[in-house]
Design a protein that fits this description.
The chain contains three helices and five strands, in the order ααβββββα. The protein is α+β, with helices and mostly antiparallel strands and about 90 residues long.
Length: about 90
């Protein structure tokens, strides 16, 4: 499912227009992005939790050439499913 399909499904369930629903989805994603950028967790009860974690620097191997390379440390976003989502 892509964003436009998501917007259409939400609009159908709520009876709102696709334009209003699209604005809502955009606002939701913007708030989640802002919170994660500020290194705060976003917990959607029953659904799951978005948070940022620090990945350590590590050694990896290029599978094509076999050359060993260093992958630098970085922050990344992780999603941990909630209990209701895990039930599937």
């Amino acid at each position: 499912m892509n964003k436009s399909e998501l917007v259409a499904a939400i609009a159908e369930r709520t009876g709102k227009t696709k334009k209003d629903t699209n604005q809502f989805v955009d606002a939701l994603l913007a708030v989640i992005k802002e919170e994660l950028t500020a290194e705060r967790k976003v917990n959607l009860s029953g659904f799951g939790k978005f948070e940022t974690v620090q990945r350590k620097e590590r050694r990896a191997r290029n599978p094509k050439t076999g050359v060993s390379v260093t992958v630098p440390a970085r922050r990344t976003v992780v999603f941990r499913p909630g209990t209701e989502l895990k039930a599937f």
